[in-house]
Amino acid sequence: MSAIDAAAGPRLRRRGRRADDVAGLGRVRAGVFVAPALALIGLFLVFPAVWTIYLGMTNYRLTGLAAANPEFVGLDNFASALTDDAFWHSLWLTLIFVLVSGVIGQTLLGFSIAWALRHVRGWAKSVIETLVLAAWVVPASVASFLWLALLDRRTGTLNALLGTEGTAWLIEYPMVSIIVFNVWVGTAFSMLLFSSALAAVPPSQMESARMVGAGSWQQLRDVVLPNIRGHILTNTLLITLWTFNTFTPYLLTAGGPRDESSILAVYIYTTAIPGGQLGMGAAISLIMLGINLVIALGYLRVARAASGGSK
Amino acid sequence: MRRKLAAIIAGTATAALLLGACGNDGSDDPTDGGSEGSDGPVTLTITLNAIAGGKNAAEAAWIEDWVIPEFEAAMAADGTDVTVVFEPQGVDDEDYKTKISLDLQSGGGADIIGMDGIWVGEFAEAGYIQPLSAVGGSAVEEWEGWDQISDAVQNALSFNGERYGIPQGADGRVLYFNKDLFAAAGLPEDWQPTSWEEVLDAGRALAESGVAIPLQINAGTAMGEATTMQGLLPLLVGTGAEVYRDDQWIGGTDELRDVLEFYRTIYVDEQLGDAVLQQEAAGRDTSFAQFAAGEIGILLEGDYFWRSVINPAEGVGTAPMTNRDEVVGYTRIPAQEPGSGINGQDFVSMSGGTGRVLNPNSDNPELAWELLAFMNSAEAYEARAVDGLNITPRADVNAELLASDPMLTFVSDEVLPITAYRPGLAAYPEVSLALQEATEAVVAGDPVDDALANYADAVAGIVGEENVDNG
Amino acid sequence: MTGEPLLPQAADAPGPRTAAPPPSLGRRMVRHYLSRVLFVVAMGLVLAFFALPMLWLVTAPFDADPSLTVGWPDWTLANFARIAENRYALGSLRNSLVLGLGTMALVLTLGSLAAYALSRVRIPGRDGLLYALLLLSSIVTGTAAMVPTFQLITQIGLINTQIGVILVLAGGVLPTVIFILKDFMDSIPKSYEESARLYGASPLQILTHVVVPTARPGLAFVAVWTVVQVWGNFLVPFLLLRTPESQPAAVLMYTFYTEGGQPDLRLLSAFSLVFSVPVIAMYFLVNRRYGFRFHGGIKS
Fold first, then answer.
1. What are phi and psi of B470, to 5 degrees?
2. The complex's ipTM?
């Protein structure tokens, strides 16, 4: 571990790529190393994905006449999705969900815990870290049930604690509920990533900052953040993608009431399975993929600009 | 240490793959064989959304403890070596439907498949299932059971006038009421409302006497088909309209407006019901528990509620009422006004039903039919009744068994003759969802006209403007 | 509830105090105590937030008559006996293990090979490829690709096999795994490999003897992450496996409901705990043994 942590310093002052191939792998052998993974991904990921793209251009359904003779409808599905208010509503909810629960909630809380615990040792740290991690590793079906029990209108623990008997949290505040739930589930990843990142910030730099009288806030801004910029981007990119695609909120609210918590992953499910419109579901999935792509490219641009500017 | 890690990874990989390979033993796809013919032992498979220790456990137990051994023995006596394998599921209906669709689409699947009657149309249109006689051969038409099953009940598993499966029961919807609460509100023990207004009057009297939830008529999307079957449709047929009639789907008609107005009166204007409950994920269960706890005055439910929910028998009811037979009354659902129901009826109901179909991909379709016929024989229903009484599709069995249960006799004698069925068409589930959304909007406080207009748009989008009757 | 707890100035309190001299002693003391109190309160809130939902999981399984409300249990172990009574429950946990460990092993092996090669050799378009796959993996694990996946697995004869499920799940998580591992390997100092090469080690030997041990925390992270993904997955095993004997716990858990959808709380609570313990235990084990670090960042 210490080797890794120590490595972070040099990594930031990375040299060019020509020196990378220290093991003498060569392109051919590298290809051999990559091939099995690519074959697996090609067969079980890319192939169904391409098929899904094709389905998105048909009126395919799982049952009924359109199952027997699906028709090629070209871009009709895309057109009707993009002119459907329900789609835009769902996209709007998704953006709020990703921004508030993922980018802001998980990242900030995860970073804050990592920052606060960076010098703490002993049981307090273990207890907090363990609980945060437990929320993350507990299977989604269990996690959602725990929250159903917590938020239940009649016998829920939260109502008992707050004295708000009869408040149906999942119905009155569906978006808030799934956002808080998602923060609870996903904070562990950011916490882990940032605690490694903080450990890798060169102590000497922190020390010099302190010597010149920098407060915590200044240390954070001037020393820590520039050092962990790469981690912040990794974190934000993965969190964004994962939050965009998470289906678990369905287990809490099923998208309801009245589609008030129908984020895109849920909207696709209700379109494709209970609604039966698999072709349309595939088309919306592709639109979602496109949005993810734009976001990812945006992050990479920021990353490039930032690293270009800092050197 | 280094080697160890690599070894651990390699070891778990091998072990897992080996375990995976073994785990597959004995569960080979039974329909893949194809070459078994008549010389070797034949394997037949049954898939139902029933599982020991979970959903429809009694049905699963009946399959495993009675159907399989009895059928295998009967076949062995005939000199045919048959093994019957039960592949239980036990999940949400939508997931189950997805799974059997995929099975059938890929040319696989069990020989006998359980399904909801309203799926028959879409499965038939997709080419996944075929009429029973096309699969099972001439023996199908000669089956003795058809004479015992009324046409209306047979219709539950039919499409375009052809039988696709055998229904496994019949059911009907009634109004349940709590006699204790009624007595306290000064209402009669033998209550029989003859119009919606009288139902509302009873609700008002209950509200006055302090009952928190006088009326529970399912609404909203969270309850799914329970909203349509135990709410909207029984009301709709009470106005004389039907969801599908003369090749037209119901649109934004006056009859539907009346139904939505009735919802509005209950949940918004007079607050005779719990509007939030309609949106809760487990709202229907909660309504069961509340009725059992004596908190609900009047509840529109199927006979399922009587036999499987408030049934006091040990381990049968999910919300048992020990004093069910004394406290719970039941009565027919009135039409909006006397004589305003479909066919000029004074009282109405809705029926649905699940059943079992033959898989056209079966390698042994004739034997599969024999098994299906065996599962629907009189003795099979009698064996099934040991674990709990249902209204069976067979008149001969009902005559013998139902006498012991006045409620089921009531449904069989008084409700089934006036009941109506949903259209077994592929578009139905989507139209049903649109109807649920309309009730949800009204219950949440939207104006009835808005909900009606949105519904009319939705249904036109599903089936096409030309197939909608907007009155 | 989410972002408010931790003010940065509160957080530095427990750190070694070697900072520049403060303006005055009194002010320093007040500030010190204030930040300490704030720190403790903030940590308490975080603790409560994460612990509250968990309370049900540790009390209800031991309660003779569990409800949705958390309460001091009426102690019993009878709920766990119900797991043994359910015909499929124990087998489903074993199936979950098979799927989880199988996918993990496959993914770690293929992922570290690929990540190492991608990290050390500049294959044209490697970054673009990696991001494209990362994005694709998000739709394929969803509902839209269900029909193609099912048809594919049927065609190659792996329907109703654990291997079919493992392959599909592995295909779904591999891009993310490679992405994370590559980041990790990028940060490993090259000097070890250089010296190993001087002693004549082959690239594969360098990978297994030098890189993998150094990347242990990253592999550990990926291993746990993969198992967590598989452990909770419902749709893929449900659709690809036919009999309840072969279904994993995530699928079986949904059968603990009655016809009306009412959860069997005794069975469900006990099973939830038993179902969650292996992944939590695995995290502890892996963490203790190999360290548990996520390392890396996007470089441009």
1. -95, 20
2. 0.82
